[in-house]
Amino acid sequence: MIRLKQSLMDAVRASWLYVLVLATMLFLVLPTLIVIPMSLSDARYLSFPPKSLSFEPFFSYFASLEWRSATAVSLITATLTMVLATTLGTAAAYSLHVTQSRLSGVLRGLLMAPMIVPTIFIAIGLFFVYARMDMNNTIPGLVLAHTLLALPYVVINVSAGLRSYDMTQEQAACILGATRLRAFFDVTLPQIRFSVIAAAMFAFAISLDEAVISLFISGGDSSTLTKRMFSSLRSEIDPLIAVVATLMTLLSITMLCISIMAQRKAKRAAA
Amino acid sequence: MSVVELHALNARELQRAERRHRWYLFGSGLPALLLVLLTFVLPIGWLFWLSLFDANGQLTIENYTRLLEPIYVLTFVQTFKISIIVTIACVLIGYPYAYFMIKGARWLANLAMGLLLVSLWTSLLVRTYAWLIILQRRGIANDLLMSLGLTDAPLALVHNLTGTVIGMVHIMLPFMILPLYAAMKSIDPIYNQAAAAFGASPSRAFRDVFLPLSLPGLAAGATLVFVITLGFYVTPALLGGGKVQMISMRIESDVSMYANWGAASSLGVVLLLTTLLMLFIVKKGAGLGRRSE
Amino acid sequence: MSEDLKLSMSIDIENLTKTYDSFAALDDVSLSIKSGEFLSLLGSSGSGKTTLLMALAGFVRPDAGSIRFGGREMIFEPPHKRDVGMMFQSYALFPHMNVFQNVAYPLKLRGYGRAEIRQRVEQALATVELDHLIERNINEMSGGQRQRIALARAIVFEPKILLMDEPLSALDKRLRETMQLELRRLHERLGMTVVYVTHDQREALTMSDRIAVMSKGKIRQIDTPVNLYERPANRFIAEFVGESSCLPVTQHAGLLQFQGRTLKTGSAVEGLKNPSLVVRPEKLQFVAAEAGEYNHLHGHVADVIFQGESQLVQIDLGEGMAVAIRRPTRSSESNRLPARGEAVVLGLHPHDTLVVGNEP
Description:
B: MetI-like fold, 2 domains
């Protein structure tokens, strides 16, 4: 009798778990999905079912010089950040992997620090320093700042890839006649490429989505998409923003898929 | 560390070569180091410096003593309040979710992870904007509540604390769930099996075996959420409607509106130190817990 | 003969030292390896044999000393400038390249032309009998095949020195023994100087021209396999190389005695510290009674163990001492083996009587 009651209670508890989890899943994905129908309607308020279907917001977006320029800025910055962060981060991850000194411990700490330090703090600091170097409202300034934020993730990803890689192969390449640099490019890099790709995707996404620092150090012609969005949202809800949001979301999800595929391939290669 | 006499055969040159080699390897990390020094260490160092000067350029600690004034204390209290609420909500919602990702039906658990990642990778700004849409007076949340008959008039779900908390919880959930999931994953199922073999019911086994073992992961996730929420800017700024004032927003207004670098930097320093302190406390607590095992 | 026509090079190691914290991996090691010689570095883990090989390759930079290849100082050269072939324990083949590309890699680095590369790679793979697998993926290869590919890659550029780090340890016993003989034959054919690291004394005995036995960062004895086996310098070597039982021996008035009897030895033995009698299983014989020139050991049969091609008879000599005698499994022999518990007399010819001291 007690056994029956116990298993009944367990079943009830199990179904509660399912309900809760399903509700949470809906909670998690709802905002991502909601922007798409929003970008296709002309109304200011999203109602279900949507009142009218219209491509007006898309047209406004493509017609707007400011939004197009902001998109260009964000995409260029993200691409440059991806290249810079991946290169610097991979080199740093390699250095950390092959040296075990106190100095490399310091380097690792410094590289990881931006994850712990509140971004607003970094943002005003950079704004201040850039002002003195006349680097505010420039794309290079943005790229350096975004790279700083992306570096920890690149280092973590590439370090993981290096850990599951057999360094003896690099030794073999060296004794066969390759300099260490050549051995890295010929042998090591091809084998950690999935970790590097995943890291690159991270870097791109981080740069594209970055809002806080961009708020301070980008402006005018070099405003990022996020800065324009933020400024717009503070004043009113323009349906055009939904278009931007949709495009950004589609881009993010593409990056995510590529990253997951790359990480899965990396895991398979290590096995 | 060599105990070899330097006059031994080739010893001096070999030592020099070894040192050169180490620098060469370290050099690979130099570009990254330079970037971090320029964009991180320099600005933050400067901010620390700025916080010690007043508007006239005099050395002073008034920027810090000013933080004891009621208006700042209120900001601190509200920030902590929000962080605590968000952390607790994330724990309550996140724990079952992480548990499900481990124990649930395979395809459903994968979907759960997938949706979590989609949420994480969607732009922060986009998600905050989406909540603005959902929670506004004529948004779907209110539509749903009214059609279900739970309320007659639309509720003020956004441009206030409620909206801020909802938005923050949404943003922070992945940061709670992922560390928790990782920790849960490393719990050997053999412990639960052993408990069952000893006659414990599933709920008993959970309470006595699984839950305690998952606590370190829970602590890690909770700390992460708390610490990130403390310094958060975008979501409270957009969803708070001016009624919510967190430390980060105060810093922003001090810079953008008042150009009061002394105030902004001192506030930032305090925020940073609070963050580090919290991390340190949790780390020590985890260490103590482990030692008592 | 000019340097270019020679197939091999000599190696001179002088006062090599390497310490990690307070641990001496190499302790003032000096060694001269003749051109074309097959030298094994034999020792247990921690003996320094791998460290010495890595120092020769350039992956470990000693704290002091000199390494010369063919008279030229190499100790400051990085690995990629040393022009030696090397085989690693884990083979370290490149999984993202196929067999051809793996073997061709050193040639590509040296700037050979495409046709020349093709020819040399095919030749190298033919030498290891794998030319039919030239286009295959590395992941499809078995352990034994990978080992050969690694060997082909190491010799394809005709190095004058070949370094090998326990290359056969991942193979099963039968394959290992086959490969030992093959490597020996390869060495005779190609003629380069080989430095071979192993912990398996049988392997070292099979393949080497000379063996350097190492322990605690020092070379304890370096000699031909025969000399090492028949005339070990001390007890450590005697026990490390080949099976043996070491029995305590006393000295009375210049004479060595065991179990109260004077030992007759082939040559004069003097000034040993803690002398021991080294008894190898194949050197003992059953004798009827104390007669003739043999040294005699008295004991009881403890066990008779069948080991396939031979039988091992364990004899208890009393006072906690034991020896073993190995007899071939020939029908004429097996019938005459004593049974358990029987009292026996063992004979050891003076020329087989080996007395050694502890290491200095």
